[in-house]
Amino acid sequence: MSRPPFCMPPAGVRARRLATRRGEFAVLDAEPAGTPVGTVLLVPGYTGSKEDFIALLAPLAASGFRAVAVDGRGQYESLGATGRGAYRLGALAEDVLAQAEALENGRVHLVGHSLGGLICRGAVLRAVAADRPSPFASLTLIGSGPGRVARWQRWKVRALSVCLPVLGTGGVWRVCYRQVEPGDVGAFLYRRWLANTPAQLLATGRTLRHEPDRVARLAAAGLPIHVVSGERDGAWPVPLLDRMAVQLGARRTVIKGAEHSPNAEQPAATAAALLDFWTGR
C-alpha cells in the first residue's frame, strides 16, 4: 500500500463529501486563492485512498489548479455497495465520470495511480464508447501499466483474495503487519485498511490480475497523456511503462528516488512534473 508522508489535511485543503449522480464520495479538496486555471481529479490505487495524493494538493492549488483527491466506492471513507458488481472496472469508471461531471469547473485533468490508472483509462474509454462529450482535458497515469500487474504481484493479490474471506481485514493485517506502527501515519494506515470494503478489495484485486491490454484503444481516444513512474516499480516493470508511453505517444516522466508511488514518495518532483505537463512546459 502507498504510504503518505502525512495524513492530516494541510491548510487550505478541505475534507468533505462530493455529491454526484452515483452517490457521495469522500474527497480532499484544495482550491486556489483566485479563479482556477484548471481542475484536477486524482484517483487512488488498490488498498489506497485520497491521502495518497495529500502532499500534492497544496502545491497544485498554489499554482492555480483546483485539486480534488477522491476515495473510490468502498475505499476508506467512501461508502461501499452490495455485491462485487459495484466494484467491476466499468462501474468504477462510471463513478469517475460522475465525479468529474460533478466538479463543474470545465474539463478535468484526470490522474490515476496504479489501479486508479486502470479505472481512469476505463472512464476515458467509456466516454468514447458511449459517444458522449468527454469531461477530461488530459490523462496522467502514475505507476500504472497497460494491463494486468506483474506475475509476483498477481500472486500476492491472489493470496489476499484467498485469505481475506477467511481472516477478515483485521486478521490479514495481523498476519502481514503484526502490529500498528507508532505515530499518526501508522495509525492512519491501520484505520484505512480496516475501513476498506472486503468486496471492493476482492473485485478490484481480480481486475489487477486479469485486466487486458487496452493501450491501442486509449491511443485512439486522442487525449493528451502523461505516463509517470518511479525509477523502479514492482507492479509494472519500468521498461514496460516506457514502451506503453511510446505506443500512446505520451509524455514520459521518471521521478528520481521513487518507486511505485512517486505521488507519496517524491511529491514535490511529482507535482512539478504534473504542472509542467498541464501548462505545456
TrEMBL record:
GO terms for molecular function: hydrolase activity. Signal peptide: none annotated. It comes from the Bacteria. InterPro entries: AB_hydrolase (IPR050471), AB_hydrolase_1 (IPR000073), AB_hydrolase_fold (IPR029058). Residues 40-273 form the AB hydrolase-1 domain. Keywords: Hydrolase. This is Alpha/beta hydrolase. It comes from Streptomyces litchfieldiae.
